[in-house]
Design brief:
Elements lengths: L8 E7 L4 E7 L5 E8 L9 H18 L1 H7 L3
Antiparallel strand pairs: 1-2, 2-3
Length: 77
């Protein structure tokens, strides 16, 4: 069975210097594979609340759609 078919957790890391958020898949054997990365919004929440909310929504959608169990529960094949 390939790693993408196994159960895994997500690990999120933020690099403060580069302002990059990385999401890794963490497998039961403790190996990690980079799933995606993105730059954090340039403005703060107070400066751009709408932009922050859009970023947070996209982040949540990425995590849900990458989870085989979440996809099964919410009916995404």
């Amino acid at each position: 069975m390939s790693k993408t078919m196994k159960n895994y957790c997500h690990v999120i890391e933020v690099n403060e210097e580069t302002r990059v958020l990385q999401i890794y898949r963490l497998y039961p054997d403790n190996s990690r594979v980079l799933y995606t990365e993105t730059e954090l919004p340039k403005m703060t929440f107070d400066e751009d609340e709408v932009g922050f909310r859009e970023f947070a929504k996209t982040l949540g959608e990425n995590l849900l759609t990458d989870s085989p169990i979440a996809r099964k529960i919410i009916g995404i094949n």
